[in-house]
Amino acid sequence: MNRLRRLDTALRPIYPCAMAPLRFAPSICPGRLAHIPWRCAAALGLLLGALLLAGCAQGPLPPTQPPSRPPTRVETPAPLEFQLARPIGSQTSLQAQAPFTVTLENCAGGQPRTQTFTETLSLPLDGAVRLPSPPEGLQAEAGVIAAAARSLYGLDRERTIEERLEAVAPPAGRAVYRAHWEEVWDENTLQVHRGEEIIETIPLSALIGARLVTEAVITETCPSRGTGGAGLAGDAQTAAALVRAYLERLSQEDYEGAYTLLAADYRRRVPFDRYLEGYEPVAEIAVEDVQTTHVEPTYAVVEAHLTVGLRRQGQIVSAPWLATYYLVRQMGGDPWEWAIADVIMLPTSPMGMP
């Protein structure tokens, strides 16, 4: 019995492996444990030694490691796709460009004259699509969004618009057509898709075309030319007629038409934009009198007394002015014998001083 107790004490550190043979002790040594003969105890000791040599001496088995999980698979998001919300051209806006004039002369004709003018306009590629800044989350795709919009509108090549203007001039007169181009912009919405889902909508405008618009038609009778019998007196009349026509166009705010009556050297010195800026403060022009004060075969001087209304601090202030026009004779058979080479404007009262 003492032997078994000592054996039990020795085996406690190596439970459960070392205690397993004791379950078989009754079959190896039948009878009560208190009366186990020494031979049975020896057999049990040999069995326990074999178990110790087989691995029980190594102590308890290490804990079982949980099975490792497979790596998480990262799915690549679907690529962005783009589509217009409405058909192109279903909703448009118009933007007028700077006006210009087309003049048809018929001073020597006894019948109305008709002529077709062909006007062309090249649509720019730069700025043909207007997009706001991309919303948050798509700012890194700004270039992709702009390229997709240009592709949807086919804005990868030069585009030229051509239209015709049918002009008619009266007998012994001329017709001045005032026209401008109107750009046609498509107002639409760009839908941004990821798979089947619309993740964002972006408003945009795209230049899709242009059209020619005629604003007004001004017809006037050509001044009679001086003949041999009239001499310089006839030249004085035609010079004064040119200045009257020039002032009439200014009073009607037909600045393009007035600009065409200036000499070529004057137009080279003063571009039209700068010429137009000079008339920005002018609200009205009234012609009092026009007279030719000097005439030579190649030049003439014409004076005009005018009442000019200027915009000042929200009001129109009118005052008398004296305008002196220096004319040169036209070359190359132009319908007007004269052209304005220079002008000097002088106020004739303190009210007209700037």
Can you tell me about this structure?
It is a single chain. With 354 residues, this protein is α+β, with helices and mostly antiparallel strands. It folds into three domains: 2-57, no CATH class; 80-218, Proaerolysin, Chain A, domain 3 (Beta Complex), CATH 2.170.15; 224-352, NTF2-like, domain 1 (Nuclear Transport Factor 2, Chain: A), CATH 3.10.450. 23% of the residues lie in helices and 40% in strands. The protein has eight helices and twelve strands. It has helices spanning 2-11, 25-28, 38-54, 142-153, 232-251, 255-259, 264-269, 272-277; strands at 80-84, 92-96, 100-106, 113-123, 129-130, 159-169, 173-194, 197-221, 282-295, 299-312, 315-329, 338-347. The strands form three sheets. Strands 1, 2, 3, 5, 7 and 8 form a six-stranded antiparallel β-sheet that branches. A hairpin with an 8-residue loop joins strand 11 and strand 12 (338-347). The N and C termini lie far apart (136 Å).
Order of helices and strands: HHHEEEEEHEEEHHHHEEEE
CATH topology of the largest domain: Proaerolysin, Chain A, domain 3
Number of helices: 8
Question: Low-confidence stretches at least 5 residues in length (pLDDT < 50)?
Answer: 226-230
**Alpha-beta content class:** alpha+beta
Number of domains: 3
* Structure summary, number of beta strands: 12
Mean pLDDT: 80
CATH class of the largest domain: Mainly Beta
Output the radius of gyration.
52 Å
Strand content: 35-45%
Rough outline: elongated
Helix content: 10-25%
Main sheet, how many strands, which sense, barrel? 6 strands, antiparallel
Calculate the terminal CA-CA distance, rounded to whole Å: 136 Å
